[in-house]
Amino acid sequence: QVQLLESGGGLAQAGGSLRLSCVASGRGGSINIMGWHRQAPGKQREWVATIDTCGGTAYSDAVRGRFTISRDNAKNMVYLQMNSLKAEDTAVYFCHANRIYWGQGTQVTVSS
After folding, report:
1. In principle, which of 24, 35, 57, 85 could form an S-S bond with 76, CB 3.0–4.6 Å?
2. Can you name the residues that pair with 107 across neighbouring β-strands?
3. What backbone phi and psi angles, to 5 degrees, belong to 88?
4. What are phi and psi of 69, to 5 degrees?
5. Is the dihedral of CA 78, 72, 51, 32 positive or negative?
6. Torsions phi, psi of 102, nearest 5?
7. Residues 24, 3: contact at Cβ < 8 Å?
């Protein structure tokens, strides 16, 4: 079983930045894909970004060019640098490992 713990959420102004972190612990085999999803109030959870063990990345259209995903394989951590934040980025952000294990989420609120 793999446990994931997110941190770094909070309140930011539109145009500002936040950096989310997520650490994986426990046993569950190798972690290949790590990533972030988010869920805004009243909306379905949506994909944000993923990164593989080689550093290959992919982003949703909504965040491409503003968010950057990175990881530290030695520390089993994944990060999400969020710049040029918009009010519509307000959501609970969840990290995952292999799309099997999920964290509890961290709230990001962007004020306009």
Report:
1. 24
2. 92
3. -75, -5
4. -100, 140
5. negative
6. -130, 150
7. yes
Residue type at position 30: S
Calpha distance 60→77 (Å, rounded): 21
Displacement of CA 40 from its chain's centroid (Å): 14
Q: Name the one residue in this structure whose structure tokens are 């990164």.
A: 51
Which two three-digit tokens encode residue 50? 């993923």
How many Cα atoms sit within 13 Å of 55 on the Cβ side?
A: 1
The residues near 60 (Cβ < 8 Å, ≥ 6 apart) are 46, 47, 48, 49
DSSP string, the chain: -EEEEEE--EEEETT--EEEEEEEEE-SS----EEEEEE-TTS--EEEEEE-TT--EEE-TTTTTTEEEEEETTTTEEEEEE-S--GGG-EEEEEEETTTEE---EEEEEE-
